[in-house]
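Thread amino acids onto this structure.
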């Protein structure tokens, strides 16, 4: 008899993570699928991909590295940590240029890092970003 698939196990975990946690407050916050500690922004420069992946006026979420990179209408790149400033959840959704936190619904502007929807009150942490040989490299603020 085949073992239970990891997909169904993850589905169960996601269901459990979505259960009401009234009364637990921020202590209940962990990764959205509940299987490990919250992530962290890069502590050293990371190669994120081709620079042309981020168009003017757009943003790209690099979820594996907890980084969002945006490019303003003048072509200037910005990078921000996508660790939510409310309670530390990794943000996993980018809608246009708006980042949406899965834990309590805070939203951030990926072009500026600023909060556009509470409960977060602090802007995302800005990272350094540059292009090298047509690649985007982001890292901790210097
Ligand atoms: Fe609470 Fe993101 S951790 S809204």
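Threaded sequence (142 positions):
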């Amino acid at each position: 008899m085949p073992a239970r698939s990891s997909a169904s196990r993850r589905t169960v975990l996601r269901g459990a993570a979505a259960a009401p946690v009234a009364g637990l407050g921020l202590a209940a916050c962990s990764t959205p699928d509940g299987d490990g500690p919250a992530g962290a922004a890069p502590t050293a420069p990371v190669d994120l991909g081709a620079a042309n992946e981020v168009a003017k006026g757009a943003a790209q979420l690099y979820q594996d590295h907890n980084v969002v990179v945006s490019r303003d209408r003048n072509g200037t790149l910005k990078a921000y940590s996508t660790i939510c400033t409310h309670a530390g959840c990794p943000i996993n959704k980018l809608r246009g240029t708006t980042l949406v936190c899965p834990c309590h619904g805070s939203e951030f502007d990926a072009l500026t890092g600023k909060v556009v929807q509470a409960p977060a009150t602090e802007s995302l942490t800005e990272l350094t970003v540059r292009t090298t040989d047509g690649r985007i490299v982001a890292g901790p603020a210097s």
